[in-house]
Design a protein that fits this description.
This protein has helices at about 5-35, 40-50, 55-65, 70-80, 80-90, 100-105, 110-125, 130-155, 165-175, 185-200, 210-225. The chain has two domains: about 5-165, no CATH class; about 180-230. It is mainly alpha-helical.
Length: about 230
């Protein structure tokens, strides 16, 4: 009978505290998808195919606002650009993986999976890298899928007067506040918020507010950081 690699179990154990934060986030994503007009089937399909918390919520908001598909996809790409940096950073540890294993690892890549795996690899050269990564990433995937399915099912039965259409914006605010650790991040967030509102008020078509605000926020954040605004 095959045994489960110890490093896989270590990955599941290390990720367990994060499951407590992932579950309510997934519930909100499921509820928000249904509240924005997606069917339960579409909400579950998006969760399993896209598998990206922040960009998934952004896509739900845009789909609910009948934004053009190109804008929806472009927004998701911009929000997830950080995954390219994660991939470049973790790629040297995955060189020995088979192509199929690399494909699975890329699909399961998240902020949490990257952070825990890099920390483990730097501490222990003897780690079964793939087993540990899959232990972390797959357990996060399972919790996300279950919670978003639960949210979609529950959301379908919630009365409209409960106002759950505000669920997605509130989650974005909850994700934003802990990241405001220095002047650069603060300037980036403030700029992004102001630009997003300005774009909406100006009546710019195609729901470009998220993309324009993201680009402006990143530009300002990098500018402040380059000028020594990390304090």
């Amino acid at each position: 009978m095959p045994t489960v690699p110890p490093d896989f179990l270590d990955g599941v154990r290390d990720a367990a505290p994060l499951h407590l934060g992932i579950a309510p986030f997934g519930l909100v994503a499921g509820v928000a998808a249904v509240e924005q007009g997606l069917s339960i089937f579409h909400a579950i399909g998006m969760s399993s195919i896209v598998f990206a918390g922040a960009s998934q919520l952004a896509m739900i908001e845009l789909l609910g606002a009948d934004a053009p598909l190109a804008i929806v996809v472009g927004t998701a790409v911009i929000v997830n650009l950080r995954m390219m940096m994660y991939s470049a950073s973790i790629a040297p540890y995955f060189r020995s993986f088979a192509a199929r294993a690399k494909a699975v690892a890329s699909y399961l890549l998240t902020d949490q999976a990257y952070a825990l795996s890099i920390a483990r690899y730097n501490q222990d050269d003897g780690t079964d890298r793939f087993a540990y990564y899959i232990g972390v990433a797959a357990s996060l995937w399972v919790v996300w899928q279950i919670s978003t399915i639960a949210g979609a099912v529950v959301g379908a039965g919630l009365p409209p007067e409960w106002g759950f259409e505000f669920a997605a914006p509130l989650v974005f605010l909850a994700l934003l506040v802990p990241t405001l650790k220095d002047r650069a991040s603060g300037a980036s967030a403030l700029t992004g918020g102001i630009v997003a509102v300005a774009v909406v008020v100006a009546g710019v078509p195609f729901h470009l507010d998220i993309i324009v605000a993201a680009v402006a926020g990143v530009f300002v954040g990098l500018t402040v950081e380059s000028l020594g605004g990390d304090a």
